[in-house]
Design goal:
Elements (H helix, E strand, L loop, with lengths): L1 H48 L46 H21 L9 E13 L2 E12 L10 E9 L6 E7 L25 H7 L3 E5 L15 H6 L12 H16 L5 E11 L1 H12 L5 E5 L17 H4 L28 H6 L6 E5 L11 H17 L22 E5 L10 H12 L2
Parallel strand pairs: 4-5, 4-6, 6-7, 7-8, 8-9
Antiparallel strand pairs: 1-2, 2-3, 3-5
Helix pairs in contact: 5-6
């Protein structure tokens, strides 16, 4: 009998392993198909732009590669940044009014035209529906969770359906409307078991999870799922919200990329927050890591209803200066694998034009958030690596400081790159490089203490 059971077990295990192999093969076929479509859409965009030259090759993140990215500060070339307080016509910006009426609109237009793309004139409305409600515990903190679905009106093009996924948690002990932090992330983690917290993969077991830390201060949380707004690949540009607006057709070179689409989704989530009396609409923060950190700062730059920012390891195309030849470069971003984050025009700067031809850089993106407080977060180069260029992110904050000062606020208190673990939190631009990896996890407690100055909880 035991032998038969053993044979049966072996048979069942064999079937299970075969099914895993089949799933892996299906996954590889699907990924190959996406890569093929990415390239086709990329080349179609180059055709629209009239670019026949090959793109310059981006450096490799592998230090042993012959084409390795530069990770040596002594080899960083000199560069000239676009002026943040000089207009396109050469006028020095000396007053708050001149910032809001002259310089800021110019910077917005340059970012929309050259990097992130313009929003379409007509985007369908979103109707928020409650999918489920539950009372639960995050550690010892009682919380009411709402799972919502933002259904985008597709009556003009029924072939594409967009349902935005949003999870909202409100502390049960709240007596009045609470501040809320919205994270770009996952509701069910692709990294861990379904019952784990979405970002548990990135956290140390010695520190509380971000939700627990927020609830302990009587703050709410939300998780917005970017892929439910727009797929994170070029193959998906004819679907999602971009495909819906374009009726399944290819986008034009100056139209929005995926980062701008995700930011649009964040704005629609804020529309919902404004209708929920348990949420303080004047105290909404946005947080994200890596590409979601890029989405977080793009969201804050283009939606002034966001009062605080927390940008983790956002790197090139986000908070790191593109003109620094350190880590990831514009040639990587404007490649078939990542060009979809940006508008088609961005490809020009990795082919027929140079990085220095860009009319804007990351310090100006941070400046668009002014005078609202922002916190720039990076991980240790020993764990996270140097691809995201922590110093380049810090310098963006340094060069955005004059705008904050013009508007009566305080930026970074030093222009010297601080030692790891140093919390620069005296001003409305804050920076800290923690000793962990590619995560905001080790900086949450620092961010909450810093945020308390502005939200007074």
């Amino acid at each position: 009998m035991s032998k038969l059971r053993s044979v049966s077990d072996i048979f069942i295990l064999s079937i299970f392993l075969l099914s895993l192999c089949a799933e892996a093969q299906d996954g590889k076929s699907s990924q190959d198909s996406i890569h093929k479509l990415n390239y086709q859409h990329f080349m179609q965009m180059k055709h629209q732009l009239g670019i026949t030259a090959k793109n310059r090759q981006g450096p490799s993140g592998d230090p042993t590669d012959p084409n390795a990215a530069n990770f040596d500060e002594s080899k960083v070339r000199s560069y000239v940044l676009p002026e943040v307080l000089v207009s396109n016509e050469g006028k020095q910006i000396n007053t708050s009014r001149e910032w809001w009426e002259i310089r800021r609109p110019e910077i917005v237009e340059d970012f929309e035209t050259s990097i992130y793309g313009h929003l379409p004139d007509h985007i369908p409305d979103v109707k928020w529906n409650i999918v489920s409600k539950k009372d639960t515990l995050i550690n010892s903190y009682p919380v009411s969770e709402l799972l919502l679905e933002g259904l985008v009106d597709n009556s003009a093009y029924p072939a594409v359906e967009v349902k935005i996924e949003l999870l909202v948690g409100i502390p049960k002990r709240a007596k009045k409307a609470v501040p809320l932090v919205m994270e770009f992330g996952f509701i069910k983690s692709p990294f861990m078991r379904a019952n784990d917290e979405p970002d548990s993969y990135f956290f140390s077991s010695y520190e509380p999870k971000w939700k627990q830390q927020l609830l302990s201060q009587n703050m709410g949380y939300a998780i917005l799922v970017p892929s439910s707004i727009q797929a994170d690949n070029g193959a998906g540009l004819t679907s999602g919200i971009i495909g819906l607006v374009n009726h399944g057709k290819q986008r034009k070179p100056d139209e929005w990329g995926v980062l701008r689409a995700w930011a649009w989704g964040a704005s629609r989530a804020i529309d919902y927050f404004e209708t929920n009396p348990k949420i303080d609409e004047n105290r909404i923060a946005v947080e994200g890591v890596s590409r979601y950190g890029k989405a977080a700062i793009v969201s804050m730059a283009f939606d002034q209803r966001i009062s605080l920012g927390f940008f983790g390891s956002a790197g090139a195309g986000g908070t790191s200066l593109l003109r620094r030849n350190f880590g990831e470069q514009i040639e990587n971003l404007a490649s078939p694998g990542e060009y979809h984050w940006f508008c088609g025009n961005f490809i020009k700067y990795a082919s027929v034009m140079e990085t220095q031809d860009l009319p804007v850089d990351a310090h100006q993106l941070i400046a668009l958030c002014a005078p609202r407080p922002v916190f720039i977060s990076a991980g240790s180069h020993l764990i996270e690596g140097q691809w995201i260029d922590a110093k380049g992110m810090f310098l963006s904050g340094v060069y955005a400081t004059p705008v904050y000062e013009l508007l009566g606020k305080k930026g970074l208190e030093t222009s010297g790159f601080p030692k790891m673990g140093t919390a620069l939190v005296d001003g409305e631009i804050a920076f800290r490089q923690h000793a962990g990896g590619h995560s905001t996890g080790p900086n949450w407690s620092t961010w909450i203490a810093w945020a308390s100055k502005y939200w007074q909880f």
